[in-house]
Amino acid sequence: MKRRVNSLQPIAFLIVAVVGLLLIYRVVFRGSDPALVVYCAHDSIYSEKILKQFEKATGIRVAPRFDTEATKSLGLIELLIREKDQPRCDVFWNNELLGTLDLHERDILDAYKGPGFARIPAAYKNADGYWTGFGARLRVYIINTNLIAAVESDVNDRLRGDLSRVAIAKPLYGTTLTHYSVLWQALGRESVRAWHIDSRKRGLREVSGNATVKNLVAQGACDFGFTDTDDYFIAKDEGYPVTMLPVKLDDGHTIAIPNTVAIIKGTKRLSEARQLVDFLLSEACELELANSRSRQVPLGDVNEEHLSAEVRQLRPLVESGYPLTSLSPARAACLQWLKTLH
């Protein structure tokens, strides 16, 4: 007896074969929907939450890469320079500006002026859209109120004397390098060189990072030190007897250091990268940073009813910040000199 053949079997086989070929094509040629690669120098305890909010809002997967506390900005910048010809990163979220300026000069960044670009003041963005700032910190003196008075004149007097109970992060990277670069441009290289060498002789304690400065002052091992507002607020929230005063130049300028965001030239995910830039430069993102423990100060217009009194008080200080966009030559010269000493 002859066996009957199901007429539907060839069709089913064909469907399975086509589906299989499509899956193979997706894996081999499309990389199974690769994630948007973000190199991020901002503290992961704050930035990861924002990146996850972006994933939820857009459905775009993000693969962040962070680095160490002490060298995170410099380390990621050096990595981006090494990868220039074969970039792995799509978007760089830097926690400062000067390294971003260096990347722009090396032709590593791609210009973009999206919806968020217009809401950021000109002083905190590249006119052609190669980078844009958001969410700033201020350089401040963190002061142990059990040890010295929180008076600007007293701090300045102490800075002219014994510095063995004063701390600063090594100025080779991060916001301390920005601080030194501002002084280099504003006061001149000879003044900075003389101050740095003399301060070392008078015992200034150079430590691994701003967080270490904060800890030394909070715990009473140092009377005061140079750090950023975000580290100060951590110490305050933990109940330590600390207060802060803004670091000011002789002309009254403060040193306000924004986060910056830039798209890496050569990205294969340009549309997704632009969406992330739009997200980071939004009012919602700046409010998220402002209301986090770091209290980063919005640069664009926001509904001030959603800001704490602490952040509202800092906004005028950010508005009087020293202009940073032309600091690249000062950074390069200052860093080259500092490397001969460290």
Question: Topology of this structure?
Answer:
Elements: H1 9-30, E1 36-40, H2 44-58, E2 62-65, H3 72-82, E3 91-94, H4 98-105, E4 109-110, E5 132-144, H5 152-159, E6 166-169, H6 174-187, H7 189-201, E7 205-207, H8 210-218, E8 224-228, H9 229-237, E9 242-246, E10 256-264, H10 270-280, H11 283-290, H12 309-319, H13 328-339
Parallel strand pairs: 1-2, 1-3, 6-7, 6-8
Antiparallel strand pairs: 3-10, 4-10, 5-8, 5-9, 5-10
Helix pairs in contact: 3-4, 6-7, 6-13
- The CATH class label of the largest domain is Alpha Beta
Tally of distinct domains? 2
Helical content class: 40-55%
Report the span from N to C terminus.
93 Å
What's the CATH topology name of the largest domain? D-Maltodextrin-Binding Protein, domain 2
The name of the CATH superfamily of the largest domain reads Periplasmic binding protein-like II
Major sheet: 10 strands, mixed
Q: What is the correct CATH architecture of the largest domain? A: 3-Layer(aba) Sandwich
Low-confidence stretches: 18-31
Succession of helices and strands: HEHEHEHEEHEHHEHEHEEHHHH
Structural class: alpha/beta
Assess the beta-strand content as a share of residues.
15-25%
Count of alpha and pi helical runs: 13
- Output the radius of gyration: 25 Å
Task: Tell me the number of strands.
Answer: 10
Overall average residue pLDDT: 90
Shape: globular
